[in-house]
Amino acid sequence: MTEHGLELVTRDHKQTDTVIAVSPSVAIGNRDVCIIAGPCAVESESQIVELAHVLRAAGATILRGGAFKPRTSPYTFPGLGTKGLTSLRRAGDETGLPVVTEVMDVGSVEEVEEHADILQIGSRNMQNYPLLRRVGQCVKPVLLKRGIAATLWEWLSSAEYIANGGNLEIILCERGIRGFDPATRNLFDVTAVPAVKRLTHLPVIADPSHGTGDRTLVPPMALAAVAAGADAVMVEVHTHPDNALSDGPQSIEPAVFEELVKRLRLVASAVGRSVLQATKPVHSP
Amino acid sequence: MTEHGLELVTRDHKQTDTVIAVSPSVAIGNRDVCIIAGPCAVESESQIVELAHVLRAAGATILRGGAFKPRTSPYTFPGLGTKGLTSLRRAGDETGLPVVTEVMDVGSVEEVEEHADILQIGSRNMQNYPLLRRVGQCVKPVLLKRGIAATLWEWLSSAEYIANGGNLEIILCERGIRGFDPATRNLFDVTAVPAVKRLTHLPVIADPSHGTGDRTLVPPMALAAVAAGADAVMVEVHTHPDNALSDGPQSIEPAVFEELVKRLRLVASAVGRSVLQATKPVHSP
Amino acid sequence: MTEHGLELVTRDHKQTDTVIAVSPSVAIGNRDVCIIAGPCAVESESQIVELAHVLRAAGATILRGGAFKPRTSPYTFPGLGTKGLTSLRRAGDETGLPVVTEVMDVGSVEEVEEHADILQIGSRNMQNYPLLRRVGQCVKPVLLKRGIAATLWEWLSSAEYIANGGNLEIILCERGIRGFDPATRNLFDVTAVPAVKRLTHLPVIADPSHGTGDRTLVPPMALAAVAAGADAVMVEVHTHPDNALSDGPQSIEPAVFEELVKRLRLVASAVGRSVLQATKPVHSP
Amino acid sequence: MTEHGLELVTRDHKQTDTVIAVSPSVAIGNRDVCIIAGPCAVESESQIVELAHVLRAAGATILRGGAFKPRTSPYTFPGLGTKGLTSLRRAGDETGLPVVTEVMDVGSVEEVEEHADILQIGSRNMQNYPLLRRVGQCVKPVLLKRGIAATLWEWLSSAEYIANGGNLEIILCERGIRGFDPATRNLFDVTAVPAVKRLTHLPVIADPSHGTGDRTLVPPMALAAVAAGADAVMVEVHTHPDNALSDGPQSIEPAVFEELVKRLRLVASAVGRSVLQATKPVHSP
Predict the structure, then answer these.
(1) Contact check, Cβ <8 Å, C178/A180
(2) Are C181 and B151 in contact (CB under 8 A)?
(3) Burial D136-172 (b: 16+ CB within 10 A, else e)
(4) How far is C14 from chain D (nearest CA, A)?
(5) How far is CA B249 from CA B18, B252, D95, D122, in A?
(6) Mind listing the pLDDT tens digit for each residue in A33-42?
(7) Distance of alpha carbon A203 from alpha carbon A197, whole angstroms
(8) Closest CA to C278 of C93, C97, C105
(9) Under DSSP, is residue A129 helix (H, G, I), strand (E, B) or coil?
């Protein structure tokens, strides 16, 4: 054990980088940088299916979309729930893209694991220990977002809960911490990417959409994250951001996303990596 | 609704202070300041029962003690669980002190509500929405700790989740936020007490033990909290702090607690209040 | 030297509390709590003289007022400069109250020292080392405000610069640090008072006006500061806060100040101290 | 004027990017990214001259080196002063590299301006208004570091002081802000680069050495800063970092620097820019 009381997730325990197979053709943590994209929330089946095709064509390798949404206010859109989950699954199946979605409570883990390829633990639940223990029993990978004011060691301690339950397929995701400047929604801690990678063998990815909360800052900060060593970037894309049911201000349009993917390829190459491309043929209907 | 999307918990909705009856003889939110004391964790039945007698004699009006403990590391003492709960209840019954203890997940709410007089939602779970909705259905009061980096409006939004579920008996508890100075464990935001009281009609209390993380700072900051208008203070007391199974560094000894209560009475009086005294006779065995 | 490279200002160097004589009848750091009051800025001679009489009658023991004002924008009122300084001096002489005012640059130290009884180093200049070295050569006491994001050790290191220059008459002043919640202008770190007092023998005071930035929070937080052990409180008072040339939102009216002084006496007494009263007879004109 | 009371430094005042000519062959703010490198402090003439040649050969376009050093403790190396200044100048002259160095007080501005090509205002002096006004009268460009807890608008307000004095040649430099995680010395706010560029026409650069305080994090974060749009990066390089008189832990070795420059060229190219190369022939002795 380290001085911080950790064991399984540290470099002391395992020196080499952990590579997590998300699907037969998609892995996170190797030389290839993944691009995870999708709407904040699944708003309808047609929305997510159509967008998934667009995103895949533009270069996304994993599809994201919220079905169960944690919302600060009880009076805002909480997601479509089970309906959102099955719609997301269908969008993934149609495009061949693995899907990631958030699970908010112990009682929903089984259902979410049935439909998703990666289970996301959101920032607000980073220290929800019963939930961490529960996804520690899953066979699917877990994407663990950093808490809004979590130190690197606290973040790793939460990962250790999952690992301790038996699931070592954990992807850490920096998504912005609390800052003092109202100029941006959160303070995107890009340095956390290389800093936590020194401590752990787990893959580390970055979410510049929540990280900045501002669509014009998403492209430069996605590039910065890859330059700093992120194993994947996760960005929110919406066909009509201004009409999005949640997180519109931080969602980019598909055309901007397409341009961003091109730049990401160049930056990944500049740091000795490449961007993973969706190679699996899309089944014809 | 306010500009922040809140309704039930704001002063706009209800101008007068809410007073919450915890037991026939104990209420929070009126002229009387309550003193909540006890160990971080219930370590054994004899520990909590003996300590409860000492605390009651010294002036405590509510007994605290953790049965289910959220711990940053999966390898540290997680509390005694159900055994801790029944021991705490027995200590409360023997002394006539109402008891408060934390509930960490939806599945334990029923059991905790059966044994406790107040259900505590910890800082890490301030935005655990399924849990907030669940305690919103309870008939017992809920003590909602402020999240480690929660703004006042986010804190109130979490209270709104509980109120929206039907339970308006909510006590807000400031317990220290994340700061930049390693000189103290947390940054105890005493100003939050009068600042949030302007926005809400709910009672607001303060926990200088977690707030400072340092036993020598607990007495002055408990006094400061009452001077600033706190409706109660919650302090961790342990007979042998250096042997405590958790939070020893921030626990004070019974003799220090006794001295503190005397000072609290003087400060409460200086700001036009008094300290509630346990008046209910202790039943003889 | 301590592990932090400090010497003169630490308790290791000197165990007993330092008491600083500001005038024949006013000292800071002993059993008596001082009350420092005045406008943010001296706006005219009649303003400061009249207000000084009012404040003295209400219980102030030291008069504050800015002549050289550090302002975030170059287009706002920078203070009256020399004229403000002589007006402040006259107000002090007429009422028998010692005066404290800020000095912003090395070139003004001589002039400010000639007129003031205490030289204030503002928060923005806490690490202006040439200025610290210069006031280290003064014979008048220095009031050193904490930097907006200074740790306790950084604050003491700045005090050490002054002490190292030969001037050990240093008063530390907590005035709010940067926080993440826009609900208040700053985050008033009351805990810093007892926390830094453990490390240093110097007196520690608190400024709830800048600390909170909000006049309705000034009274409760002034009381909290004294309850926590502050050797003095410094509050901004203005006859017509809404017309103040600077810091109006955080200035209280004289009637509120008078009421506050009464409460401060009760709280000081509750923690075993008293509030110093201006005893020196005011000379008749 | 904007809502924040600014005028000259905003995009409202001037839409197009300001390009600042530092020397006949070096400009900051156009398509070319500059690389500023050098030791934290000038330690001797031979050190800085020899290092300058190495850095120029490796790709540096501007030489940095401290002569007057702001140090938290009065007992640590304060820089060589005038001797350091003339040594830095000589290193610049020998290599043809323009030089940047810090000025800490009004009284030294004339001397520093005589020897330096860019005057640096350090983080601790970002709100030292007499100093800002003084460099506002200089004809040389000013590099304004962001204060440790400055918002973007406060940073720009300080730039406005300089501009208001008549000097519009201002380079903004992000250098890390105060964070809550002791894992890194500061919190390098890379997002501030594109975020402040939206508000101002001035060039914006980044200092990952102070930003992270950790030499292993400097290369990835330098790359991230350029990916995010920085007009230059400033890195501390030392031949023997472990023997450096200041900031050794964050200084990289020349070989690491050389490798970094190669990567920076690739990343700059990936975002549609190039890295400026020192083209002026070095005079033979």
Answers:
(1) yes
(2) yes
(3) bebebbbbbbbbbbbbbbbbbbbbbbbbbbebbbbbb
(4) 19
(5) 34, 8, 58, 39
(6) 999 999 999 9
(7) 7
(8) C97
(9) helix
- The pLDDT of D24-37, averaged and rounded, is 97
Number of Cβ atoms within 10 Å of the Cβ of D242: 9
Is any Cβ of chain A less than 8 angstroms from the Cβ of C181?
no
| Range in A273-282, C89-98, C254-263, D197-206 the model is least confident about | A273-282
State how far the alpha carbon of D193 is from the alpha carbons of A260, B126, D188, in Å. Answer: 18, 33, 10
Phi, psi (degrees; rounded to nearest 5) at A9 = -90, -5
Which residue type is seen at D264?
Answer: L
Residue A180 touches chain D, beta carbons under 8 Å: yes
For C51, the enclosing helix (H) or strand (E) is helix C45-58
Domain-embedded: residue A49: yes
Q: Classify residue D191 as exposed, middle or buried by CB count within 10 Å of its CB (0-12, 13-18, 19+).
A: buried
Residues in chain C within 8 Å Cβ distance of A182: 182
Q: Is residue A248 part of a domain?
A: yes
Q: How far is CA D41 from CA D168, D212, D256, in A?
A: 27, 18, 19
Q: What ipTM was predicted for this assembly?
A: 0.96
B4 touches chain A (CB under 8 A): yes
Mean pLDDT computed over A199-222: 98
pTM equals 0.96
How big is the A-B interface in CB pairs under 8 Å? Answer: 83
Q: Which chains touch C (3 or more CB pairs under 8 A)?
A: A, B, D
Angle between helices A218-227 and A254-270 (to 10 degrees): 20
Q: What pLDDT score was predicted for residue B284?
A: 43
Helical ranges in D59-203 per DSSP H: 82-95, 109-115, 129-135, 152-164, 192-199
Residue C229 and residue C248 in contact, taking contact as beta carbons nearer than 8 Å: no
Distance, in Å, from the CA atom of A157 to the CA atom of A129, rounded to the nearest integer, reads 10
Number of domains in chain C: 1
**Could you tell me the two tokens for D254?**
């020349």
Crossing angle of helices B218-227 and C218-227, in 10° steps, is: 150
Q: What is the DSSP code string of D204-248?
A: EEE-HHHHH--GGGHHHHHHHHHHTT-SEEEEEB-SSGGG-SS-G
**Secondary structure (3-state) at B269:** helix
Across-strand partners of B33? B275
* DSSP classification of residue D41: B
Domain assignment of residue A222, yes or no? yes
The secondary structure element, H or E, covering residue B153 is helix B152-164
- CB of C163 within 8 A of CB of C187? no
Which residue range(s) make up the domain with C197? 20-272
* The length of chain D, given as a count of residues: 285
A-C C-beta contacts closer than 8 Å = 6
The structure tokens 């107000």 sit at C91
Chain C residues within 8 A of D105 when measuring between CB atoms: 106, 128, 130-131
> Residue C149 is encoded by which pair of tokens?
């994001």
Which residues of chain D are within 8 Å of residue C160 when distances are taken between CB atoms?
A: 73-74
What residues of A are in contact with residue B133 (Cβ under 8 Å)?
74
**Mean of the per-residue pLDDT values of chain D:** 95
Find the largest Cα–Cα distance for chain C: 55
Tell me, yes or no, whether D239 lies in a domain: yes
The CATH number linked to C88 is 3.20.20.70
β-sheet bridge partners, residue C232:
C34
Determine the residue of chain D that is closest to C78 in CA distance. Answer: D129
- DSSP for B29-70, written as a single string: SSSEEEEEEE-SB---HHHHHHHHHHHHHHT-SEEE-BSS--
Model pLDDT, residue D70: 92
Cβ atoms within 10 Å, residue C17: 16
End-to-end CA distance of chain D: 52
- Closest-CA distance, D189 to chain A, in angstroms, reads 7
User: Which residues are within 8 A (CB) of B106 and not within 5 positions of it... i.e. 6 or more apart?
Assistant: A105, A106, A107, B130, B131, B134
- Contact criterion met (CB < 8 Å) for C182 and A178: no
**Residue C232 one-letter amino acid:** A
